[in-house]
């Protein structure tokens, strides 16, 4: 049974955020809100957590997991970013974008695309997510909470708790965060390639 944590959207209770972070450190799989929609997240290196996300979402090994980072200092540990790409990313973050970039050695192999050796990264503009990342001190390995065969993700924490109670360890709820997933832009080939049009404005990459 998943534990349910409700926090204020603008001033999330530090004690609650601390409890969720401690669960993640101990191997928990959680559903949490972002500036685009809810996501599934676990600790970096949590192989069981990754397997559980794949099972819940029915994903194959070509799926790009995302490292949700607190800031650029953290993001730079896990992907290679040249100066031109850095300026473009800096102008678009924090925000509703996921960027696909070449992974560094800090990224576990099971997170990388099997052929391209890339990984998705993002810096969200969401108070509760940022509080959780600050408390955790490392990125969250994440995937959009979009169930197989469904076109839109679930938007309410209580709904997620009710439906996925048996497969999650915790649900962090700070209110409705929308249904549009991030816009995904692939920079692994140098020039930006829009892989998915979502919540983020794509005009700056076209």
From TrEMBL:
It holds the Pfam family Sua5_yciO_yrdC. Residues 14-200 form the YrdC-like domain. One of its GO terms (molecular function) is double-stranded RNA binding. InterPro entries: DHBP_synth_RibB-like_a/b_dom, Sua5-like_dom, SUA5_domain. It comes from Streptomyces roseolilacinus. This is Threonylcarbamoyl-AMP synthase. It comes from the Bacteria. The lineage of its organism: Bacteria, Bacillati, Actinomycetota, Actinomycetes, Kitasatosporales.
């Amino acid at each position: 049974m998943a534990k349910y944590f409700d926090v204020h959207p603008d001033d999330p209770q530090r004690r609650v955020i601390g409890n969720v972070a401690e669960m993640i450190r101990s191997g928990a799989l959680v559903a949490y809100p972002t500036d685009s929609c809810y996501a599934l997240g676990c600790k970096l290196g949590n192989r069981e957590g990754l397997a559980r996300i794949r099972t819940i979402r029915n994903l194959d090994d070509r799926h790009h997991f995302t490292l949700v980072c607190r800031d650029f200092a953290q993001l730079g540990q896990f992907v290679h970013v040249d100066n031109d790409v850095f300026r473009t990313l800096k102008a678009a973050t924090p925000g509703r974008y996921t960027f696909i970039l070449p992974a560094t050695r800090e990224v576990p192999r099971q997170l990388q695309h099997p052929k391209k050796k890339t990984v998705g990264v993002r810096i969200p503009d969401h108070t509760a997510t940022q509080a959780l990342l600050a408390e955790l001190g490392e990125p969250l390995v994440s995937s959009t909470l979009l169930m197989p065969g469904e076109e839109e993700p679930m938007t309410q924490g209580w709904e997620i708790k009710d439906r996925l109670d048996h497969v999650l360890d915790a649900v962090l709820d700070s209110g409705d965060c929308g249904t549009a997933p991030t816009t995904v832009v692939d920079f692994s080939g140098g020039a930006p390639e829009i892989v998915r049009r979502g919540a983020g404005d794509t005009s700056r990459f076209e």
